[in-house]
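[step 3/7] inverse_fold.run input=structure_tokens len=1051
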């Protein structure tokens, strides 16, 4: 290494610039690899005055790294740095300032201060950005310069360059975060610049504006809390009550500046930088109305695809949010399922979130998921899962018994850690309802012979001691065994043995008096002073003698008092007082430099402080400035967002138009810098024309008073989508007509008619697709009530020929419901005889039209009495059905004889979804929670149609309405009979006659909505086939595709 350094020194002292440049590249390369190059400092610093720009840049890179370590040598070159601050090249000026601020010697503070002041007025935004960085360094070196630095910050905050904004706000946060008055005049400008600032600048600005909003605007959550307030103040005097009511009558109107911040940060949820998305999410959480917070959940779930460090932070924040707002993340429940590749820290956080999201509706799914987690090889995770099951059992009373039984089953697990954790959790659950569980306590007493984990042994002994009167035969025997092994036990277990002895002495002294005295004697001479102290205390309390005081009379009450059940709470319960996304929130302790969020003010401070002086505006106003700002926004937003943003309520749009124009005008006077000129200033006429159109639309919307933002936004989207579809159609018509000028007019007319009909049909058919549909989420089946036109794609000539003469009124008459091709005999368990205390129930789908209603699926339930007594009054009790779902129940059965059986029919309208219908199957004495989840194939009715009709309907259900997949299987599995048998086994479909041997067609319609479901199996060369499903109900189609594919693939 030393030899290498000598060579580099010689190259640096060479007369040739090429040798010096080569040496500097190698040195910077060494620094990049983490090697120490400090001894080359004298040789490098000589070249600081080099005429060659490239060498100069690299020298400054080196000096920034080592100036702090080699301060004396760096001070020798200080005059060179001062000269470089006047260099014509902006990079050299900026580098010189960086080196100067890196020499951390108090003696040069005045020079640094002067350099920062000059740089803050530099024409180059890059130099001004470095001046903002230098402010923080100077402040940490000499805090007494604070007042002068605040002046520079105030000046730089007025800067219109996006390059400077993030850096100066960082300096503001470091030097004077409490000087909110500096932000007032720049607030709107910062909101409008936000989308164009570099990513880390965005993070800093968003955090600062979150704090600002909490001090300047009133709480948007007041409306939600109104009811609670009313309840709290019920007993106030009439006058006070009237005063409060008057205050509440004033409707909450959001400050336009508050709305500006929320609206301008929304596009950043799509940022590629996870920190930006997290910053926007915390802003929405802390300052937006509760009804609008929901939009952040999708973006946060998207971040879970990032690396594990990002996942960890995001999951911590979701865990905190999900305690207060379960509904936000419930649709994404499956995103929090644990993967085998997740590290333990991620697994435990996901468990935490799943616990927070657990409710009566999804608990059965979650418990099935937890069952697999318990078998995990990661023992720490398996133990955490058992604790999670315990928490679910305490939170949701309906599943307490189920969880307890599941945990008891785990006691026979081979893994000691799982057993130990189960014992600890069972102990907590039994504390809540001890009277019913004598059997479990007996079972756990037997485990003392095999369990060695001290916490588990101690828990069992504590349980037996608490319930010693319920297990009078077992408790003394357990004490006898423990007395034998007392000396070899862990200290934790010894303490519980002493407690058990004391409790038995008080309740069953006849059997245990001598045993307890023996244990007390062993404890008296134990090595641990805690155990010796406990022994002395217990002896005085329970063994009466002349010295024992008044307390011994109450010994039984002291030892066998009713203990409060433990409260199983989330570790994230109290974290919400820290700002989300901060280090303090992650560590759950206040970190150095953490700035607390203030509470909302009761009355909003004067909003006029954010208005910018009109004189300044008049001086700087130029149309070019306005054009530039608008274009920047236009580039960033997608079309749909632009349309949403252009429509706001009247109060918002009016006041914002003032504020926004003010900011845009302020932007207009661009800096003299060459680097700030951008192509966005030169725009085509068509762009500006379209923008004028946008503005008119916004104005038109602003006139409609009294309508909420969301309503206006929806209408605007509808209008724009409709106009899009018309323009698309007219465009396609022009193309087709120009492409076929030789055609006769009658042909053109017929094509036009066909296309109009196709368009109308498409509008009707595609109506349900206006919702965002996730294939994992089968809850979104209800059709959308508002019709929205979709742009119709240009039709191919062959398809137009097929569609000519299409008559919608006659097409439906050809398609009629048929009898099922095949009825599977498979039954499903509704109620197991063990769970139903002798009553067993099975159900199956007979694939017949339901007699109770044409939208219902027919289900036959067979009830069996497996007991030796009569079961009376069997009926369906309470129903928990998802919204829109209906159920027709069977008539109550008076009695069912022993070993008797009866079959009844019910009808359920599943609304074309595979959601579970939950209800209670009741007898005279008991009620059992049961549920029916239909296979997707049973939501269909088979239909008959001709091949021509099939093709016609298929032609209208393309694009988004078509899903397909490739199947690979042995040729013998692709014979017509095998394909028919496999398809009808899975789904209740009818067979459509086919003119081609290699294509098999099946048709059905959904029971609820009557939407067509067309299934095609097209055999290809070799051993492959293509499975195609065409339907408006894309979600059902996708699920059916997933179920058919494995069935057709297997032999």
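[step 3/7] decode complete -> sequence:
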């Amino acid at each position: 290494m030393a030899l290498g350094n000598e060579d580099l020194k010689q190259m640096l002292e060479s007369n040739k610039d090429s040798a010096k440049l080569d040496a500097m590249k190698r040195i910077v390369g060494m620094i990049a690899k983490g090697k120490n190059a400090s001894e080359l400092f004298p040789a490098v610093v000589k070249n600081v005055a080099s005429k060659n720009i490239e060498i100069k840049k690299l020298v400054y890179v080196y000096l920034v790294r080592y100036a702090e370590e080699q301060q004396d040598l760096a001070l020798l070159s200080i005059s060179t740095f001062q000269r470089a601050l006047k260099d014509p090249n902006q990079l050299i000026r900026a580098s010189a300032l960086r080196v100067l601020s890196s020499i951390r010697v108090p003696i040069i503070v005045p020079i640094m201060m002067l350099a920062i002041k000059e740089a803050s007025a530099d024409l180059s935004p890059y130099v001004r950005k470095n001046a903002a960085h230098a402010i923080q360094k100077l402040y940490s070196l000499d805090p007494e310069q604070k007042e002068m630095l605040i002046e520079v910050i105030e000046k730089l905050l007025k800067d219109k360059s996006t390059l400077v904004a993030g850096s100066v706000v960082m300096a503001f946060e470091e030097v004077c975060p409490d000087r909110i008055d500096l932000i007032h005049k720049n607030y709107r400008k910062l909101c409008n610049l936000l989308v164009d600032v570099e990513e880390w600048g965005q993070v800093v600005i968003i955090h600062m504006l979150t704090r600002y909003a909490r001090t300047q605007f009133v709480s948007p959550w007041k409306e939600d809390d109104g009811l609670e307030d009313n309840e709290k103040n019920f007993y106030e005097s009439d006058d006070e009550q009237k005063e409060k009511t008057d205050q509440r009558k004033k409707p909450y109107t959001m400050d336009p500046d508050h709305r500006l911040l929320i609206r301008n940060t929304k596009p950043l949820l799509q940022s590629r930088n996870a920190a930006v998305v997290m910053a926007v999410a915390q802003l929405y959480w802390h300052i937006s109305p509760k009804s609008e917070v929901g939009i952040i959940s999708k973006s946060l779930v998207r971040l879970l695809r990032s690396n594990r460090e990002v996942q960890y932070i995001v999951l911590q924040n979701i865990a905190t949010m999900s305690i207060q707002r379960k509904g936000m993340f419930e649709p994404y429940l499956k995103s929090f399922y644990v993967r085998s590749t997740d590290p333990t820290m991620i697994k435990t956080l996901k468990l935490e979130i799943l616990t927070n999201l657990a409710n009566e509706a999804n608990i059965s799914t979650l418990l099935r998921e937890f069952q697999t987690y318990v078998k995990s090889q990661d023992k720490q995770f398996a133990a955490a899962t058992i604790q999670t099951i315990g928490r679910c059992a305490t939170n949701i009373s309906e599943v307490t018994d189920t969880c307890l039984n599941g945990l008891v089953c785990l006691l026979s697990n081979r893994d000691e850690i799982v057993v130990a954790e189960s014992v600890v959790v069972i102990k907590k659950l039994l504390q809540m309802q001890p009277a019913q569980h004598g059997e479990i306590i007996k079972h756990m007493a037997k485990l003392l012979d095999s369990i060695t984990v001290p916490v588990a042994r101690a828990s069992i002994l504590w349980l037996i001691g608490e319930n010693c009167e319920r297990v009078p035969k077992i408790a003394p025997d357990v004490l006898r065994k423990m007395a034998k092994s007392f000396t070899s036990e862990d200290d934790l277990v010894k303490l519980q043995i002493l407690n058990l002895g004391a409790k038995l002495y008080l309740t069953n002294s006849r059997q245990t008096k001598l045993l307890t005295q023996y244990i007390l004697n062993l404890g008296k001479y134990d090595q641990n002073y805690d155990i010796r102290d406990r022994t002395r205390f217990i002896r005085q309390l329970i063994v009466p003698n002349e010295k024992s005081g008044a307390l011994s009379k109450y010994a039984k009450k002291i030892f066998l008092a009713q203990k409060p059940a433990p409260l199983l709470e989330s570790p994230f319960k109290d974290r919400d007082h820290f700002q989300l996304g901060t280090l303090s929130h992650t560590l759950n302790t206040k970190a150095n430099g953490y700035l607390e969020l203030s509470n909302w003010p009761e009355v909003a401070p004067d909003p006029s402080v954010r208005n910018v002086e009109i004189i300044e505006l008049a001086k700087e106003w130029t149309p070019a400035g306005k054009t530039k700002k608008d274009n920047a926004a236009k580039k960033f937003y997608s079309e749909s967002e632009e349309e949403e943003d252009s429509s706001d309520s009247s109060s918002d749009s009016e006041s914002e138009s003032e504020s926004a124009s003010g900011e845009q005008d302020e932007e207009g006077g661009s800096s003299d810098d060459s680097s700030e000129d951008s192509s966005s200033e030169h725009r085509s006429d068509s762009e500006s024309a379209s923008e004028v159109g946008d503005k008119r639309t916004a104005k038109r919307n602003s006139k409609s008073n009294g309508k909420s933002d969301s309503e206006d936004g929806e209408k605007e989207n509808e209008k724009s989508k409709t106009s899009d579809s018309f323009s698309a159609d007219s465009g396609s018509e022009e193309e087709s007509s120009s492409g076929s000028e030789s055609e006769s007019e009658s042909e053109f007319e017929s094509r036009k008619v066909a296309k109009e009909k196709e368009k109308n049909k498409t509008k009707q058919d595609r109506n349900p697709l206006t919702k965002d549909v996730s294939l994992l989420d089968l809850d979104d089946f209800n059709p959308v009530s508002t019709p929205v036109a979709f742009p119709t794609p240009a039709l191919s000539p062959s398809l137009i020929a097929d569609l000519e003469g299409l008559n919608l009124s006659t097409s439906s008459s050809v398609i009629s419901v048929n009898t099922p091709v095949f009825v599977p005999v498979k039954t499903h368990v509704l109620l197991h005889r063990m769970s139903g205390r002798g009553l067993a129930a099975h159900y199956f789908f007979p694939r017949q039209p339901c007699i109770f209603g044409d939208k219902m699926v027919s289900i036959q339930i067979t009830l069996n009495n497996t007991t030796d007594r009569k079961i009376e009054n069997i009926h369906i009790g309470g129903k928990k059905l998802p919204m829109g779902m209906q159920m027709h129940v069977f008539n109550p059965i008076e009695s069912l004889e022993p070993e008797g059986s009866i079959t009844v029919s019910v009808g359920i309208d599943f609304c074309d979804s595979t959601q579970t219908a939950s209800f209670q199957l009741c007898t005279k004495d008991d009620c059992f929670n049961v549920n029916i989840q239909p296979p997707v194939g049973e939501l269909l009715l088979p239909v008959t149609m001709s091949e021509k009709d099939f093709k016609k309907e298929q032609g209208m259900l393309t694009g988004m309405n078509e899903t397909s997949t490739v199947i690979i299987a042995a040729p013998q599995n692709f014979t017509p009979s095998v394909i028919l048998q496999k398809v009808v086994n899975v789904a209740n479909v009818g067979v459509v006659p086919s003119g081609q041997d290699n294509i098999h067609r099946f048709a059905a319609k959904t029971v609820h909505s009557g939407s067509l479901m067309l299934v095609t199996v097209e055999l290809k060369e070799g051993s492959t086939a293509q499975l195609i499903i065409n339907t408006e109900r894309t979600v059902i189609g996708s699920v059916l595709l997933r179920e058919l594919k494995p069935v057709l693939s297997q032999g």
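[step 4/7] annotate
The CA atoms of residues 461 and 496 lie 6 Å apart.
The two ends are 68 Å apart (CA to CA).
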